[in-house]
Amino acid sequence: MAGLPDGMRRAQLTGNRIRERRLARGMKQAALAEAVGISASYLNLIEHNRRKIGGKLLNALARALDVEPAALSEGADATLYDTLQASARDTRAGLGGVLPETARIDELAARFPGWTGLIAAQHKRIAGLEAVAEGLRDRLGHDPVLAEAMHEMLSSVAAIRSTADILARDPDLDAAWRGRFHRNLHEEAERLSIRATAMLAHFEAPDTEEAGASSTPIETVEALFEAAGHHFPEIETQGRAGIEGVIARAAGMEDSASHALARDMLERYAQDAARLPLDVILPAAREAGFDPGRLLMLGQGDVALVLRRLASLPLSAGAPDFGLAVCDAAGALLFRRRLPSFSIPRFGPGCPLWPLYAVLARPGQPEAARLDLPQGGVFDAWAVAQPVAQTGFGRAPVVQATMLVAPASSDNGAEAAIPAGPGCHLCPREACPARR
């Protein structure tokens, strides 16, 4: 059954689910067959997927087993199925040689629903913790607030150590000077305490663990987008009228800066949805195999629009798990949609070999590249730099670059992939000529 399409393969597992439900209830095959008015031999053929079943008989079996008919005919729901598929992909990427049997997900869900739910929940939990860890790791390397706080703390520590050294080495110090050094010790200790408390508050979450990586406005807004899977059905159907509802349900919007930034980003989402509606982009993307190169005409010259809309497609509709990065002309990242296996730093620049930065030198010219990451993953990337605002006649426009990434769909061209990384501060490629 591994080679069958998902729908056909899952339909063929109805018999397995009937058997598992029967065994879970402790029913004999003959007893169930008698309850629904068929022979035990015919039920045996059904349970071994040798007879199709539907309609009246399926409903009768569901009643006898005290379950909904859908639980027997549909198998693992789409969300659980997608989560387990994602877990299998991440396992293959992170644990070489381990190949989960993705063709038997429905069988696993039917036989062990508790364990299946646990695996899915753990996968989501791991992804959330990885996002928190990456954000904190990023912040340790590039957060200007943290850098300044650490500099001030180290200065206080140095002052305390110097003062204590003088007091320890010179027991005959004049009383007035000794009093002055004691006062300096007290003041520096107070400064150190205040700075350490402030730095801790910079990392702490106000309410929940999930908010621990979201203390700045951009992090809070990115958390809003991540929680929605970067897809907002309300805005897709209602346009700008749906923005307030999205913001009202989001955490952290009591902060005026976060609220304003969220509104700006959702306004752009609404504009994108109006210019390239979901009922246009989704069918076209499916037909094109979600290849941005085959969809450029949909943007009527706006390539970045196509890339952003592809990153906003719902995974439940069959779209790949795209990543997205947007930066300004200085290379500062303005927005990102992260992938568990493709690190896009929140603070500081990414890899200088990404096409995201290369296109800044050629505004309006789309670029595509294949990237080979140090961990072994291969990704396709599409990027373009475009003006987003005009500053006046005879002046250069304000330019932003947009890059869409996705796991490579095949091994074709893998040998020509650019050996890139997540950014120099995290990349293990010591001999890279672009390394800072």
TrEMBL record:
Name of the protein: Helix-turn-helix transcriptional regulator
Keyword Secreted listed: no
One protein family per Pfam: ScfRs
Keywords (A to Z) from UniProt: DNA-binding
Origin: domain of life: Bacteria
Domain called HTH cro/C1-type: residue spans: 18-72
PANTHER family reported for this sequence: HTH-TYPE TRANSCRIPTIONAL REGULATOR, METHYLPHOSPHONATE SYNTHASE
